[in-house]
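Progress note, sequence design subtask.
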C-alpha cells in the first residue's frame, strides 16, 4: 500500500485574517512598498515588496515576530520561495502554505534535538519521492529513500553498505582463509599492518581490539571517529562499550576498500570480523572445503 510521510510541523501562524495594516512607504496598492501588518494574535509583520489590488502579489519579503517568508506571493500567500521559523525551514513551491512540487526541501527540529531533512517531490506538504535524512544528537545519521510514496529502504552511518566506488582494484577476488583448530581467520592489511582477523558471524562487522587498534594508530592508518558508541557483548556475556570509526585503505585479497564502518573495543583481546563487514561488497562466497573466500564489486 502506498503512503505519504506527513510533515511534523505545520504553518500555524498565517497572514490572514489581519487585524490592521499600515503602509509605511511606497505604493502599497499597485506597486512596490513597505507595509506593517498586525495580526489577530497581536504579533506584527513587515512586508517589503510588490503589491497588486492592495494585496501581497509578486516578489517580496515578509518578516514576522515568529517566522519569515521570502519569495513570490499571490493574494497574500507565499507560492514559491522560503519559509523560516525557529524549528522549521522550507524551500520550494507552495500550495495553501504546504510544500507541493519537485525539488522541495524541508528541515525541521524535533523536541529530542534530532534534525530531520526531507528533499525531493512533495504532495500537499508530505514527501512523496526523495529522501529523508535524520541527524540524531548522539551522532547517528539515518537516511531513508521514498519512491511513489513507498519506502524503499533505510541506511545509517553505523552500518556498512555496498558502494561500488568505495572498492578499488579487481572486480572480484578469491583468497585463502586460515583455519586454526575450529576457528577461521581472514587475512587483511591496512597500510603496513598485516592482520589475521577471527571470523565471528555473531560480531557486528569489523571490531578491533585494543592492541590491533594501537597498531593502526602507530602506523598512520586513516581513522575517522564517528563520535558514536554502542554496547557490545564480550566473553562470558559481559557488556562493554565500543566506539564507531571509519577506516580507509583496507586491503583484502586484490581489493582495497574505503569508508568501512568499524568498531574499537578496548576490552576485547582479539579483533573480530562479522557479517556486516561483507555488506561493503555486492556479494561474497565462502568455499569451506577449499578454504577460500570470494568477494565481488
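Output:
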Amino acid at each position: 500500500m502506498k503512503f505519504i510521510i506527513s510533515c511534523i510541523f505545520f504553518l500555524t501562524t498565517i497572514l490572514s485574517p489581519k487585524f490592521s495594516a499600515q503602509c509605511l512607504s511606497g505604493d502599497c496598492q499597485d506597486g512596490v512598498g513597505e507595509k506593517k501588518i498586525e495580526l489577530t494574535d497581536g504579533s506584527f509583520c513587515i512586508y517589503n515588496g510588490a503589491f497588486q489590488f492592495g494585496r501581497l502579489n509578486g516578489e517580496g519579503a515578509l518578516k514576522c515576530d515568529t517566522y519569515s517568508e521570502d519569495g513570490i506571493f499571490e493574494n497574500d500567500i507565499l507560492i514559491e520561495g522560503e519559509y523560516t521559523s525557529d524549528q522549521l525551514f522550507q524551500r520550494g513551491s507552495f500550495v495553501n502554505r504546504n510544500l507541493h512540487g519537485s525539488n522541495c526541501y524541508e528541515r525541521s527540529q524535533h523536541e529530542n534535538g534530532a534534525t530531520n531533512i526531507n528533499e525531493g517531490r512533495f504532495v500537499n506538504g508530505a514527501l512523496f519521492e526523495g529522501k529523508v535524512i535524520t541527524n540524531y544528537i548522539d551522532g547517528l545519521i539515518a537516511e531513508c529513500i521514498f519512491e511513489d510514496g513507498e519506502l524503499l529502504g533505510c541506511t545509517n552511518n553505523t552500518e556498512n553498505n555496498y558502494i561500488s566506488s568505495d572498492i578499488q582494484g579487481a572486480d572480484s577476488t578469491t583468497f585463502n582463509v586460515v583455519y586454526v583448530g575450529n576457528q577461521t581467520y581472514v587475512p587483511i592489511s591496512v597500510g603496513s599492518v598485516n592482520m589475521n582477523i577471527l571470523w565471528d558471524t555473531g560480531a557486528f562487522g569489523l571490531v578491533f581490539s585494543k592492541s590491533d587498534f594501537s597498531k593502526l594508530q602507530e602506523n598512520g592508518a586513516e581513522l575517522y571517529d564517528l563520535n558514536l558508541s554502542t554496547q557490545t557483548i564480550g566473553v562470558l556475556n559481559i557488556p562493554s562499550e565500543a566506539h564507531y570509526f571509519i577506516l580507509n585503505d583496507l586491503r583484502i585479497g586484490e581489493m582495497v576498500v574505503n569508508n568501512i564502518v568499524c568498531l574499537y573495543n578496548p576490552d576485547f583481546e582479539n579483533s573480530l570480523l562479522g557479517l556486516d563487514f561483507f555488506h561493503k561488497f555486492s556479494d561474497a562466497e565462502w568455499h569451506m572445503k577449499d578454504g577460500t573466500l570470494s568477494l565481488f564489486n
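DSSP finds one helix and 27 strands in the chain. Work on this subtask will continue into the next period as scheduled.
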